[in-house]
Sequence to fold (112 residues):
Amino acid sequence: MRVPQISVRGGPSDRSTQAFCAIRSGGTLNSNSVAVNVAGRDVRLSIVRVGSNPFAVFRAPRGTVISMGPTTVSNFLAEVPALTGCTPEGGGYSIGPSRARATGIAGAINCP
Fold:
């Protein structure tokens, strides 16, 4: 599977702010993301580089949210190697209207 890549020039220096920037820049269209099913949820996947740091970004389709539980982020990041060929580096981040509902999830990745 070819996962589209999006580049964001410059950007913040701390990892959490970079992750939030990556989520906001992550693809939601066929031209800049691919549809995948992760943990029983249909989401859009793209790789977003904030400066030189790549992130795997899962976005909920427009007008929807990802229901969040205690293991949702780790379940999503566990799928990164199979979907991208990259390995997650550290934990993940999510943003959305509440802690229980996210519009996107991102995790820093290391790609060979």
